[in-house]
């Protein structure tokens, strides 16, 4: 009996996955673009001061001493923290990718242009949607976060981080694009390094910011499709100089 | 003596204007693009309920009965209100352009692509920056508003309105673009009609929204340059269908 119940559960999961993919294809049906369905990661806790003493150690490839920000640390010895808020894991930059894949089962996608389909946008803040993106010989982390900066007014913040140093990150440009209901919103910027806290990027608002009503306009049946493209930054810089 | 003081004042004004144009050219130096310096209009008052009974009369070419929203009006007889909040003027759609030009001395610019340079972004909310844009046989109104939706947190809202009916507005697409400090933000949408209240567009957040820190990143010495382009909406619709 238990076997049949489990089988039925597995079939239901498959149907749900198929339905999500169908939705993704319908929202972003550009031929050849890889669509990835991303389910939410509900953040268990937020520690707003975890970036306080972070700046000094970023160039050494070590994530900041987040949980113990009041203590004095030798930057060479300090272990780094998982970019996911709800995770207490600490480790060096080189093993962040394997930690995210193995522990959090975060998908890693190949390709210069992909579509990130975040499901269940109605879930209460704080919630994260995360994917890794392998492109141009590097791994990037896309973080979409629902957060209440102003109480009772949740907003969506989307940014791209390089799993690498800030110097390496300066070589790239990422683009996030929303396109629905005769509206289009594009954000282009240089990715930050995961060594800089994702929380500070979001609290500074230096990312794509959507209020709830705009997120609803861009959503289809509770899912938000974000087109992602990464390029080397030479083109972007040349255009910026124009 | 008074004559010399006035002359000196006029010379100072000319120098200031020249400096603003120089800043505009520096921020957006794309050859051939018309740069317009727009000084702020400080809004004297805000009436959040003025759009409450607005919807019924918009298709008749009549602006909503804003100041008297609790009374019952015949939509054919109701005079319309100036899109500027601080102005008590009322009149029909056909005379909005001449009112804005003559009473408020709002510039009207020709050309498919222009650059709107809003000065003195540091001024406290509520503040409006407004320009008219004549293009494709119609007049459009660009409104940039600094407003505190959440107390103590001013935001910037930019939208484009057609000085025409909602049906006419559906034929166009407008694009607003910010480009500075290796960041680029583009917003594309169908313009609203001035017969729909600009306040409701802004309170819904269905426009380009910038928080203060992002506005600072895109600003140069207190001025924000917004590239504006208007097209007929056929192209946009075709892309949206992709």
Automatic annotation (TrEMBL), chains A, B:
It is an enzyme of class 2 (transferase). InterPro entries: 7-in-absentia-prot_TRAF-dom, SINA-like_animal, TRAF-like. The keyword Methyltransferase does not apply. Pathway: Protein modification; protein ubiquitination. GO terms for molecular function: ubiquitin conjugating enzyme binding; ubiquitin protein ligase activity; zinc ion binding. One of its GO terms (biological process) is protein ubiquitination. One of its GO terms (cellular component) is cytoplasm. It catalyses: S-ubiquitinyl-[E2 ubiquitin-conjugating enzyme]-L-cysteine + [acceptor protein]-L-lysine = [E2 ubiquitin-conjugating enzyme]-L-cysteine + N(6)-ubiquitinyl-[acceptor protein]-L-lysine. It holds the Pfam family Sina_ZnF. Residues 134-228 form the Seven-in-absentia protein TRAF-like domain. Keywords: Metal-binding, Ubl conjugation pathway, Zinc, Zinc-finger. Its EC number is 2.3.2.27. It comes from the Eukaryota. The keyword Transferase does not apply. SUPFAM superfamilies: TRAF domain-like. Belongs to the SINA (Seven in absentia) family. E3 ubiquitin-protein ligase that mediates ubiquitination and subsequent proteasomal degradation of target proteins. E3 ubiquitin ligases accept ubiquitin from an E2 ubiquitin-conjugating enzyme in the form of a thioester and then directly transfers the ubiquitin to targeted substrates. The SBD domain (substrate-binding domain) mediates the interaction with substrate proteins. It is related to the TRAF family. The RING-type zinc finger domain is essential for ubiquitin ligase activity. This is E3 ubiquitin-protein ligase. It comes from Eolophus roseicapilla.
């Amino acid at each position: 009996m238990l076997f049949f119940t489990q089988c039925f559960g597995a079939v239901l999961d498959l149907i749900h996955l198929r339905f999500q993919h169908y939705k993704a294809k319908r929202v972003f049906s550009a031929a050849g673009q890889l669509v990835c369905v991303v389910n939410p990661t509900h953040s268990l806790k937020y520690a707003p001061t975890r970036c306080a003493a972070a700046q000094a150690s970023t160039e050494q490839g070590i994530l900041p001493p987040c949980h113990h920000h009041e203590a004095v640390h030798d930057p060479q010895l300090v272990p780094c923290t998982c970019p996911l808020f709800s995770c207490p894991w600490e480790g060096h930059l080189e093993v962040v990718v394997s930690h995210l894949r193995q522990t959090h089962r975060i998908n890693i996608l190949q390709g210069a242009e992909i579509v990130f389909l975040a499901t269940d946008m109605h879930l209460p803040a704080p919630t994260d949607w995360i994917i890794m993106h392998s492109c141009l010989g590097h791994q990037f982390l896309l973080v979409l976060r629902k957060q209440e900066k102003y109480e009772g007014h949740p907003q969506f913040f989307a940014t791209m981080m390089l799993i690498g140093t800030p110097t390496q990150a300066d070589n790239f440009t990422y683009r996030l694009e929303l396109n629905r209901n005769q509206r289009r919103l594009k954000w282009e910027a240089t990715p930050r390094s995961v060594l800089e806290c994702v929380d500070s990027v979001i609290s500074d608002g230096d990312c794509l910011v959507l209020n709830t009503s705009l997120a609803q306009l861009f959503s289809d049946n509770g899912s938000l499709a974000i087109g992602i493209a990464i390029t080397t930054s030479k083109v972007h810089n040349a255009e910026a100089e124009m």
